[in-house]
Amino acid sequence: MTTITETRAGAPFHLMAKPSGPACNLDCSYCFYLDREALFDTKGTRRMSADVLDAYVRQTIAAAPAEAPVEFTWQGGEPTLLGIDFYACAVDLQRRYGAGRTITNSFQTNGTLIDDDWAAFLAEHGFLVGLSLDGPDFVHDRWRRYANGKPTHALVMAALRRLQSHGVQYNVLACVDAHSAQYASEVYRFLTEAGVEFIQFTPVVERLAGGDDKARGFDLAAPGAGAEARLAPYSVPPLAFGHFLATVFDLWRKADVGRVFVMNFEWTLAGAVGAPGVVCHHQRECGRALIAEHDGAVYNCDHFAWPEYRLGTLGKDSLAAMVDSAKAREFGAAKHRTLPNQCKRCPHLTSCWGGCPKHRFATALDGEAGLNHLCAGYAHYFSHVTPWIAALAHLLATGRDPALIMHRDHPAISQQEPTHVA
Q: Cys-Cys with 38: which of 217, 225, 358, 419 at CB 3.0–4.6 Å?
């Protein structure tokens, strides 16, 4: 392997690994990453080699700013396909190259292969697990099935119970699609009744490939496809997503503040008080949340893991140079630079920042291109929660328990004392 002289990146970054690439034991209808198989010469099981794994761990630690914790995230496809030994090796490499630095691991899985051995390993090494669970069986099994049509909900629920019994840190990642968006109350109550305390809701928005993309073997449109690309039938309608979040927010605000943590609401609150922790799609710029494929290729983002967005290769190129490259900076800056005027005039601009660039294929009211497909939904959600978020921010700023907001009928919009709070 070529020796790389690595320097530190100019600011914190995050490099998520796809150690099994797009390989997965499931065939979820709405999965955007399974489509990436068409980028490789042959289909089949993908596996990050020992050399690439070494380069990923070594270069990530070396390039991370000295004062920052080093975060490793393992995603897929389905990362459990590589087996426990692969991640035991990764942990050993982290110890070897970490030299006492604070290192964390997070791991996203569909849960179907999580047995007691996996749960024990994840608990022992302090992995934070993101479990893909869309809600009750009639929601989850709508799209999340094996290639032969066999449902997965029962297996995922068994994985959840194993994670809980072994004391694994976990959160649930629930996709919101055209079907599940109709069942906000049912989804939220199911998850909380199952003992889930940390939840993230992710909108499903995909477009169907056509023309050149279809000819290259893709089912889904590549980034930058024209406005003529048709939405996939499972994509969540804009207002449906907004109503889903607003409905869940009301349920959470009335009963679960301080007990359940919905990441979407945490991001909104963090943005309102100027705190770190806002997810990339609601930041002013993006570009420092990169991915490394199983073959070592580094891209700007997992939604943009296409040849034109490739920044270099681990083991051959400096990671810090890739992170701070002009190409990466331009990718991040373009998010704000290309905002349509409708966004710039929006009262929710600093909460939304135009959303994920992948979803910015709609047309603004004045005919300008580049509006986020979910704009109407975000506008509804932010309008609905803004007074309550302001009240939460006020409680935090005055050193009071945010859970007090559960006892109020009307949110405080100003910095005055919140109404009906004892």
A: 217
Which amino acid type is present at position 375?
C
pLDDT score of 417: 43
Residue type, 120: A
Burial class (CB in 10 A: 0-12, 13-18, 19+), 274: exposed
Which is nearest to 323 in space by CA: 115, 97, 107, 65? 65
Residue 233, token pair as written in the block = 């039938």
Please tell me the predicted confidence (pLDDT) of residue 408.
64
Report pLDDT for 226. Answer: 78
CB 38 within 8 A of CB 92: no
Which active-site residues does the annotation give?
302
Q: Where are the beta strands (DSSP E) in 215-329?
A: 261-262, 289-292, 297-299, 310-313
Which residues of the chain are under the pLDDT cut of 50? 410, 412-422
Q: What residue has token string 């179907």? A: 112
Distance (Å, whole) CA 404 – CA 382? 21
Burial of residue 200, with CB atoms counted within 10 A of its CB: 0-12 exposed, 13-18 middle, 19 or more buried: middle
Please, what sign has the CA dihedral across residues 37, 145, 263, 363? positive
Which tokens go with 214? 């279809």
- Give the separation between CA 77 and CA 43, rounded to whole angstroms: 13
What's the confidence (pLDDT) of residue 3? 65
| pLDDT score at 410 | 47
Q: Which pair of tokens denotes residue 43?
A: 């289909």
> What is the rounded distance in angstroms from the CA atom of residue 298 to the CA atom of residue 290?
7
H/E stretch holding 16 reads strand 14-17
d(C-alpha 153, C-alpha 133), whole Å: 8
Q: Across 80-126, where does the E strand assignment appear?
A: 103-109
First-to-final CA distance of the chain = 65
Are 303 and 356 in contact by the 8 Å Cβ rule? The answer is yes
> Looking at residue 181, what DSSP letter applies?
G
What does pTM read for this prediction?
0.93
Rounded-to-integer distance, Cα 392 and Cα 323, Å: 36
pLDDT reported for residue 409: 59
Place of tokens 């930041």: 283
Q: Please report the pLDDT score of residue 42 as a whole number.
A: 60
- 135 half-sphere exposure, CB direction, 13 A CA radius: 21
Dist. CA 196–CA 66, nearest whole Å:
34
Q: How far is CA 401 from the centre of its chain?
A: 29
